[in-house]
Known about the structure:
The structure holds 2 protein chains of 2 kinds. Chain A is 38% helix and 22% strand. Chain A is α/β, with parallel strands linked by helices. In chain A, the strands form 2 sheets. In chain A, strands 6-7-8-3-9-10 form a 6-stranded mixed β-sheet, sandwiched between helices. In chain A, helix 3 runs parallel beside helix 6 and helix 8 crosses helix 9. Chain B is mainly α. Chain B has 2 domains: 57 residues; 210 residues, MetI-like fold (Orthogonal Bundle). Helices cover 84% and strands 0% of the residues of chain B. Chain B has 10 helices and no strands. The longest helix of chain B is centred in the first third of the chain and has 55 residues. Chain B is flat. At the A-B interface, strand 6 and helix 3 of A face helix 7 and helix 8 of B. Chain A: Belongs to the ABC transporter superfamily. Chain A: This is ABC-type nitrate/sulfonate/bicarbonate transport system, ATPase component. Chain A: Keywords: ATP-binding, Nucleotide-binding, Transport. Chain B: Its main location: membrane. Chain B: This is ABC-type nitrate/sulfonate/bicarbonate transport system, permease component.
Amino acid sequence: MAKGKVSRxxxxxxxxxxxxxxxxxxxxxxxxxxxxxIAEGEFAAVVGPSGCGKSTLMKLATGLQFPxxxxxxxGGAPVTQPVRIAGMAFQNPTLLPWRTTLENLLLPLEIVxxxxxxxxxxRGSYVAKAERLLAQVGLKGQGGKYPWELSGGMQQRxxxxxxxxxxxxxxLLDEPFGALDAFTREELWCVIRDLxxxxxxxxxxxxxxxxxxxxxxxxxxxxxxxxxRIVAERVxxxxxxxxxxxxxxxxxxxxxxxxxxxxxxxxKTA
Amino acid sequence: MSAEADTVSATAEAxxxxxxxxxxxxxxxxxxxxxxxxxxxxxxxxxxxxxxCRVFGVSSYVLPAPSDILDATIAYWWPLLFHSFHTLWMTxxxxxxxxxxxxxxxxxxxxxRFVHAGLYPLLVGFNAIPKVAxxxxxxxxxxxxxxxxxxxxFMISFFPIVVNVATGLATIEPEVEDVLRAxxxxxxxxxxxxxxxxxxxxxxxxxxxAITLAYVGSVIAxxxxxxxxxxxxxxxxxxxxxxxxxxxxxxxxxxxGIMIYAVMAWLERRMTxxxxxxxxxx
Lengths: 270, 282
């Protein structure tokens, strides 16, 4: 009890007893009595059965939706409007086909202050920054290509860059590697691992892949079937930086197995 | 042994080259056939028409043969050219009005659900009215002249532009909207950065439909309420029972129609190359 209190004090993202339903009136809630807290700079993963309200959690944390009941704090302040300090990436890369990859990266800067008003004057330095970021995820020199000239994995890398270009304090990833083949997915795990190690932003990763969650996260939340709430919380304390080899150790497999048990229970009670 | 192997591999190479060359020739000849296809079909169509008229001895008061129409075209080349230009001018003016109005209304419809719900039934109803019935009203208001033709062209052609622009806006991917809204984007930002570029292929696609409709509109109005234009020329030719001239005017309309359609199709390819990656129709 006392420990929970301490972690909530310096929490960067905190949801307290949150209930939310879509549509008007008293529809069946997507999440109910949902509480969790994530520390600043922490890499959190949320796993759970399909349709358990993981995406709702993302929308609530970014201020795209407001809960029916409960409170949400991001960066110490209650969420009353879109949070602006968040970057988002989804399973579908959603790059705009009429913009080159580089122009897609600059899109958030055309929206968010203070970059918005600076972009025109300091375009050169912003472009250089975008190119550095592209090089960092293995897309060096690909900025001039259109998204449809890139493979699925490359598009997803570009989508990650777009989520990070404005240096958000909070990065939300909604099954970002779900549509990729196993090898590309593991490559991108390492990309996101290194980006987090360098920038120390707070990350919330929503995923179905328990190995992905265990490899990347410091803390894993298991959600119940709809209406979603947290049924288990697991700290993963493998030392960083983690190598892909860690996924073949006994300790790693035990955690995946344990999570598997929680999800199976959640599905049964549904 | 090795010399033998060399000859074998040389023969195989030559065979492979021959196969490649044959494939390239086949592709080139298919491209040539595709280029010729429209000309062959058009010439064939007129030949059949000519043969039909001659074999059955059809009177040129009923259906003039293409050779009669050609004679009439040569005899009346100046009036045909003059009135075609007039029609083209009326159509273009009405079409430009339709683009401006259609874009503004389409953006409004796509941006606001309230505007969409309120105006859509009204628009569908208006579109269902045959515009030929509106021409007499325009004549009462503005008299016989160029204005009824321009307005009819405008009224008949703005609807597809409105519908297509609104559709383009309505089909923005929700994830893109989420990404931008989470950054604090205003509705106007999303419209300008995503909605408008996204609706451009729909917009340019609709122009091809709209320009031919505008053309129909101006001819209808000229037929009923003008002293100039191909429509007016046709009205006078039919009063004189000059059927070959009537047909010559129809063919002038068709040629003009193909030309303006081609201009719009070219514009569409130029402006929205990113949206035309499909190999489906190739």
